[in-house]
Amino acid sequence: MHMSFSVAVAGASGYAGGEALRxxxxxxxxxxxxxxxxxxxxxxxxxxxxxxxxxxDRVLEPTGVEALAGHDVVVLALPHGASxxxxxxxxxxxxxxxxxxxxxxxxxxxxxAWEAFYGSPHAGTWPYGMPELLHPGERTAAAQRTQLAGxxxxxxxxxxxxxxxxxxxxxxxAGVIEPVxxxxxxxxxxxxxxxxxxxxxxxxxxxxxxxxxxxGGTHRHIPEIQQNLRSAGAADVTISFTPTLVPMSRGILxxxxxxxxxxxxxxAVRAAWEQTYADEPFITLLPEGQWPTTAATAGANTAxxxxxxxxxxxxxxxxxALDNLVKGTAGAAVQSLNLALGLxxxxxxxxxxxxx
Amino acid sequence: MHMSFSVAVAGASGYAGGEALRxxxxxxxxxxxxxxxxxxxxxxxxxxxxxxxxxxDRVLEPTGVEALAGHDVVVLALPHGASxxxxxxxxxxxxxxxxxxxxxxxxxxxxxAWEAFYGSPHAGTWPYGMPELLHPGERTAAAQRTQLAGxxxxxxxxxxxxxxxxxxxxxxxAGVIEPVxxxxxxxxxxxxxxxxxxxxxxxxxxxxxxxxxxxGGTHRHIPEIQQNLRSAGAADVTISFTPTLVPMSRGILxxxxxxxxxxxxxxAVRAAWEQTYADEPFITLLPEGQWPTTAATAGANTAxxxxxxxxxxxxxxxxxALDNLVKGTAGAAVQSLNLALGLxxxxxxxxxxxxx
Amino acid sequence: MHMSFSVAVAGASGYAGGEALRxxxxxxxxxxxxxxxxxxxxxxxxxxxxxxxxxxDRVLEPTGVEALAGHDVVVLALPHGASxxxxxxxxxxxxxxxxxxxxxxxxxxxxxAWEAFYGSPHAGTWPYGMPELLHPGERTAAAQRTQLAGxxxxxxxxxxxxxxxxxxxxxxxAGVIEPVxxxxxxxxxxxxxxxxxxxxxxxxxxxxxxxxxxxGGTHRHIPEIQQNLRSAGAADVTISFTPTLVPMSRGILxxxxxxxxxxxxxxAVRAAWEQTYADEPFITLLPEGQWPTTAATAGANTAxxxxxxxxxxxxxxxxxALDNLVKGTAGAAVQSLNLALGLxxxxxxxxxxxxx
Amino acid sequence: MHMSFSVAVAGASGYAGGEALRxxxxxxxxxxxxxxxxxxxxxxxxxxxxxxxxxxDRVLEPTGVEALAGHDVVVLALPHGASxxxxxxxxxxxxxxxxxxxxxxxxxxxxxAWEAFYGSPHAGTWPYGMPELLHPGERTAAAQRTQLAGxxxxxxxxxxxxxxxxxxxxxxxAGVIEPVxxxxxxxxxxxxxxxxxxxxxxxxxxxxxxxxxxxGGTHRHIPEIQQNLRSAGAADVTISFTPTLVPMSRGILxxxxxxxxxxxxxxAVRAAWEQTYADEPFITLLPEGQWPTTAATAGANTAxxxxxxxxxxxxxxxxxALDNLVKGTAGAAVQSLNLALGLxxxxxxxxxxxxx
Lengths: 356, 356, 356, 356
Known about the structure:
Chains A, B, C, D: One of its GO terms (cellular component) is cytoplasm. The structure is a homotetramer of 356-residue chains. The first copy, chain A, is of the alpha/beta class.
């Protein structure tokens, strides 16, 4: 059975849009439709994405509902605040495309959390594109997949959120770690910041340098992490969250630690992670003693996870590695799209990284 | 008044030894004496340290007490386990050189802590080469400087230890953070691992990659951090400590967090760090809102520190940046040596980094 | 029609072997058979190639004809000198596998050239795995493809050789550049050196550094370049060839220049490159003014080429970018294998790079 | 004898201005005066140059003659086109400061060459800040030093120009290489492009990438190289010149090759370079067989040079490594300033690099 679909990508000249295209080009059922951009409209895609050889001569159209209408799927890789309007305008025309938002607009359930961190009115919540998210009472993810099956709207998770959620949710669900006083520190590649012209994103500033940002509880991914860990069973969640830019283009290495619930048998810790991820196609709990590295996930829809108990510190330490543009963004989008369209969840998604 | 001194360096073909030489070449009172090596004995220094132009034609002698004797100062940049014997043999000959150990052998006060993490008999404790270390009851460092004045033995601190200690000790001393349940995650440059031929240290493995190591409470720097924070006033210290290698040659960015003591006024937090570091010549608390970056410290004996209160998480977040080979090793050695010899503490030490 | 084949890989724990596996995992007709290694025999592949998720639990067997026999295809990623013996031993057993050598042993036609650069007896010449190589009188490559069709032995070209050949052969064949006094300078990623434990390959030596190697006419790829350009029509070839290691894991950027044949119309220059590469599936002559970058080819079997006439200098300048492990090694192997097996030449080979 | 001087720096928030400040802070006779900027006027220097600890609290004034007047020395690190006006306005006020231009405006002697490559009227020629430049008939540099002694205007050379000139001039002067058909290919760090917000200078574009620019005879440094090699004795000079950006912040590795003059004894080649550089304080011809690396020059006013004869190719190959911001810009400025002020040429200039 074939279930070919056409897909338009808005924001095709940026990093997230480019990665969505790269994955869709490798998807056996996807046909690439219209590509749009804002400032780069009218230019060839090959000028901006020289790695996408087969689309090099495609000319970018101006982002707007006229260009995006008439496809089976629309992927929005836009600055936050823009996706809600595009989706509404499509709906108004009677266009029933599956709309996938790679941005932040529709991830949060709680409008107050949105407004506190983004300072603008909330645009509404869409089904959350993380099939592996545990729901209350679950030890292996099923309910989120059900939620995504057949949906016409998908809000793709934040890349840092994905890494921290994968690291901690098994322990929350199993009740072996405390959901409060979590601490996460991340090493982040620069592509997560997008193709924006800012001084601190220049190569000269990045090379030979490690620089933190959004320190001290201000990062916009914090409420989304809390939401996910509440989904996994936490009553309340507090987390200290610090991302740091390091000189690599792709990749997130998230070190997330939590207090071990007093009296927990260390064996129960590993068992919790094993149970949750044993059958996940894109999340691997590594053999004991082997720690995740970001390079092993480059270009792949893979998250690598490891967990250890530091008895002296009274903490469980987890490390998660993933490619921010793939499992952290565009791969999660395609995986969720497969569910939305009723295709096999893993269809067209690479699991082998490009290393070294 | 001049107080010129001669200095021999053992392990001159390695990274720590090379950095000691670079700094000593810029020291107005130092005269470089014998240089020794193990496997590289008999070769020109210029083959191994092509950046040390003025010493390029020096031939390395085999490391041993014969070559090292007869200097005012001996710097030991040797694998751990070796320095105690060299110092003893020098003493036996009646050689009264100031001996500086860049390795770990003589840092720990507690033999049991040494044996637990290193698995070999303890070699004895030397005065600790961290002039900025707070002693019980201190809010600004004085006692450690007194301890170093006139000493003939110096144990230079571990580089990761220095970064974490500088980040946390003001809050411990001021009683505004809890000394238990500390969490530190570090981004580390590769030179910290020395010039050792190991697969995970190859360029192909490092580029585009972030990799953790010694996760879960096994890193040998842990007891040294605990010792320092006890010196700063903590009754007991527990810490989860995770270093991660990122693709840079030099630099440590240490994100160290601690629980805010309940009821503490946030203003008291900043005041604690300000008080401790206001007059330190080599530690700078950055203006509020500016975060440390490692590149700003490259080649300099400078540590940059910032602190913020994350009220929602109930944690104080500190970030410290330094150059592992300078303030983390060879710069601390020269600074302590200045104190040992009765020279001005800052003599010959650069504070301006080489950036970008 | 299906034409599934089994394939064994010798040297599976190295970079070239790993990349062959990555590509073969994405090949619709390949079934991965035995994996072998030398020092790493007995260990899991996942320890060495953590990015190859689907083969992580495969145990490496000792490299030898017993392990390799009985497959349709054998890929040899071995130190030079080893492949001839393995192939002979397989033939002796009556094993008629297609044998692909990723090493240098069987590339050169002239035994004297081999002995001059490698200092050992020549092991014989195998059909050369560069389908795009021009033969005398050709302007588009056909004869080499014929030579590869149905072959049981393939000698995969050197990665630097491939980049320089692609850059210069159209101009040689068209008679618009002189084949003597060529100059090629390359920026090379570290993976080209393999996973060997050498000091200059350490991350600390590579980061923030550019270092040349094999300068002054000593590099072993020189006779192979000469052989290829003679194939493209040159009577005699002289070339100054200098590779330089730069801080990236993958990629070759080859700047190769040649004297413009006096009196040549500049338009004829571009026309020559256009004609040769217009229909090549894996070589793209970029639009005028756009220059190749290595990142655009990462992970892809793509070579990007550009050419310009520097009239004032009297030289034609070409720049070629490719991924040394893909189009430079393992991709060329699979492409040639497709021809050997009678499969479509492009089957299973990615053309989209993983960027940024 | 003391000869303290005050120095103002215009463009202090950029990379070249920052490096001038770093070196001047280490100069025993320099007192840092006014610092100016354009867009960053009114802000603290510490926001832009966090590595310059001792000047962190200096506030930048708007660039203009009012702010710059009244100093012994004025360093101009401005976009090209600006320095001539500032110098003229200072002269008009009777201000007799030594004015040093780090930009391109006053390097070229030939107005036609300027206009062909820059497209604007020529601003006049200033004494050229390369003390090591050979003049006709010289084998060791003296005349250029004479020209700089006591001058009130200095035009600092281009960084690429310096690397290529140092590589080739000894052979030109000795008559052992042809001055025509030269080929230079450079690996360049990103700081050479300044702190400009351009897409191709972003970290995500730079990491894991090598990208050429200004290929095919268009780079503005070409006429300056020709001018220098004519100074060294060439009747006419033709050169193919290709810079390539590689993922490092600082450093130039210039591979420059030339045709060996037929019949030249190879020993005469090395002798030529030895003679020219034997007594140069900042240029080192490495021992035979050791090749320059950029990391060895980081932060130092050092150029490392090597030369070899490739007899089969009929070419002499030279490789030069230097730090584009030091020997390529700010170090050359201070060195020339020392000569202008009658100070020892080497005063205050580091020769030891910061490596690894």
